[in-house]
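pinned: reference chain
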Amino acid sequence: MTSALASDAAGGQGVLEPILCALRAGASVAAPAATVRVTLDDNLDVRHALQAGGLRGKVLVVAGGSRSRAACMGGNVARELADAGVVAVVTDAPVRDSAEIAALGLAVWSRGLTPIRPGKSGGGEVGGQVELAGVRVRPGDWVIADDDGIVVWPQERLDELTSRASALQDEV
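pinned: its structure tokens
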């Protein structure tokens, strides 16, 4: 499933603003979301999400970093996420240690890169609805991402949108 096909199936709804880019070209994912909201220049709640568990096979959507100068994750957190079975991370914050993250094979879409280390104060939230690049994301919503962009399908429409995407693909 490509983001273009996912967008077509959803009539352009659920497409994140094009401010997030793949850390490495060719990355793609289509999987359910787990959500976390971080606070400005902080990533403690990403660690809380790791401690909460249940991340295997999920895209970790990290919101709340759209104005952060500090990374929401670096190589150490990325390694822990990969070990926990996270298939991708989508965040409006920057990340750091990009070469190390790329070597792990963890697919990441972020607002950019920074060398700045995050704080550890917390104050965010694990789970629940978040807003990321203009789109509401809830745990269990489906995230489809590749080099062209990121699309979120509401979980209650997954069967309908999958059928639409299959029909559109058959038309080509």
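why pinned: The first helix runs from residue 3 to 9. The mean pLDDT is 95.
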